[in-house]
Amino acid sequence: MIDSLPPLREVIATHGLSARKSLGQNFLLDLNLTAKIARQAGDLSGADVLEIGPGPGGLTRGLLAEGARRVLAVEKDPRCLAALREIAEAYPGRLEVINADALDLNVADHLTAPIKVVANLPYNVGTELLVRWLTPDSWPPFWDSLTLMFQKEVAQRIVAQPGSKAYGRLAVLAQWRAEAQIVMTLPPDAFTPPPKVHSSVVHLKQRAEPLFPADPVLLGRLVAAAFNRRRKMLRAALKGFAPGIEDHLIAAGIAPTERAEQLSIEEFCALARQIAGTS
Ligand code: SAM
Questions:
Q1: Number of domains forming the structure of the chain
Q2: Which residue of 40, 109, 158, 251 is most buried, as measured by CB atoms within 10 A?
Q3: Are 170 and 238 found together in one domain?
Q4: What residues have CB less than 8 Å from 193, skipping those under 6 apart?
Q5: pLDDT tens track of the chain, all 279 residues?
Q6: Which of 52, 71, 84, 186 to mutate to test the pocket of ligand 1 (most atoms within 8 A of CB)?
Q7: Do 186 and 223 reside in the same domain of the chain?
Q8: How far, in Å, CA of 273 to CA of 221, rounded?
Q9: Of all protein residues, whose CA lies closest to atom 21 belonging to ligand 1?
Q10: Which residues have C-beta within 8 Å of that of residue 154, sequence separation ≥ 6?
């Protein structure tokens, strides 16, 4: 056992935490597995950890047992609070719980650097938060690394390389600003209740500087426009994006007949700089 608290099945029974689909509740009950996920975030001893969606606290206990300096856990479901309070009592001064919707909260104020984010979240909320964490008003962001569970297909989109079907906006955005890799894949029966699909943990480490220079807003719009019509050649897909797009493509060293999914992040950045006139 990783701690002296009751097994998670007992916690769930004691506190009546039947899983709610509306909150995307698929719980991890194996504490050896949650400790293993916690280890994917690296050395936690000198870091504050932000956990979104602790639920009954399996991953929270993994993070604390693995030595996190402090964990701030944000949970929307008030039914989980009593169970989380028991964990806080077992680890005095190291766990703070906020009952809130993570999408409504600015958590950076509650944490001290270095900050690692770790979460097993409903997939739609996870993707939304990932995009927000990758697109702050200024860089570097409040976090050092993100260790997040996603539906396996979404994880593959985050780490995808040019030329593959999964390569798109999420890959460009994530890899431009972070080193991203899949570090674990779990079958449905690792969760209670089991979801329909496999899940993967993605670890993203912040790049101090984005991979290549480009204006983030322009790059974001350019990548969105290019992939919105991913089957078209770029000269057609980007026709309405900027006047003289064919010339810009050529000046950036890109054949106008290429398609978005063939373009590397370096080429997207070169094209964004060319359009902005800063190349
Ligand atoms: N971390 C726990 C585990 O691994 O067993 C629970 C994971 S479960 C997939 C997702 C958790 O996120 C649930 O506890 C759910 O109540 C919570 N949640 C869902 N939407 C949320 C939101 N918008 N903000 C905060 N927590 C949320």
A1: 2
A2: 158
A3: no
A4: 19, 26
A5: 899 999 999 999 999 999 999 999 999 999 999 999 999 999 999 999 999 999 999 999 999 999 999 999 999 999 999 999 999 999 999 999 999 999 999 888 889 999 999 999 998 899 999 999 999 999 999 999 999 999 999 999 999 999 999 999 999 999 999 999 999 999 999 999 999 999 999 999 999 999 999 999 999 999 999 999 999 999 999 999 999 999 999 999 999 999 999 999 999 999 999 999 966
A6: 52
A7: no
A8: 13
A9: 76
A10: 123, 126, 127, 170
